[in-house]
Amino acid sequence: MVSNLEWKRWGAADPLWAVAAWAGKQRNGPEPWNETDFYALGYSDWLDFRRRWERYGVDRTSCAEIGCGAGRITAQLVQYFGTVHGLDVSEGMLDFARCRIADARFYLTDGMRIPLDDVSITAVFSSHVLQHLDSPEDSIPMFAEIYRVLVPNCTMMIHLPIYNWPSGRGLFERLFVARQWLARQKARVDRARGRPMMRGTFYEAGWLAEILKKRGFVNVEFLSFPVSSNGGLHSFVLARKPAGDGSQA
Length: 249
Hints:
The chain is α/β, with parallel strands linked by helices. The protein has a single domain, classed as Vaccinia Virus protein VP39 (Rossmann fold), CATH 3.40.50. 39% of the residues lie in helices and 21% in strands. It is built from eight helices and nine strands. The strands form two sheets. A seven-stranded mixed β-sheet has the order 3-2-1-4-5-9-8, with helices on both faces. It has a two-stranded parallel sheet with strand order 6-7. The model has no long low-confidence stretch (mean pLDDT 88).
């Protein structure tokens, strides 16, 4: 995927800010991230995420983190789960995380496949990753992979921007399509110039729920809540693999 190349560039250019893009926290900004603050942010955010996941239901035996980046959340997951697998497409991100988090297993991936066995993981987590794909459709293979590796009756918690169409959908949908077209044109220009950039992809709730149900997930829920660190609104989808399905996707 084209977005993989951009993430690799961010891994080399500014791995901390690429994961937590706060104003002024760039490597050359007035207050760049240091490791202490970066991982403290991960601790704070994980407390917010964990509380919601526990209400829904989570098995702490093992976890795969999709798009672990520099390990902001991975460092928290290893304190919570028995085994943690961190996946990312950026060698630079993984190198940074490996040097600082000894208790996780890290994998360089193509962003499409999870390099783990069928029915082998009891939880899948991801934060600030699927929002950077070029289109919502690009997420479909990843949800199939999540379903494949999950143990029956186990769950995923995936962060991604979610929206619902208001009344008068036709007008809003046309405006949204126009906005997305403009964003794609800007992305093409930035890519042609070799600039590291971040795509912003949004997921319509009805479409996403249908995709997950077709894949086989049950108990699909959407959550939106502000995190304690900066009040930023975070949206997640939670879903469960049925208890009776021990097959692969």
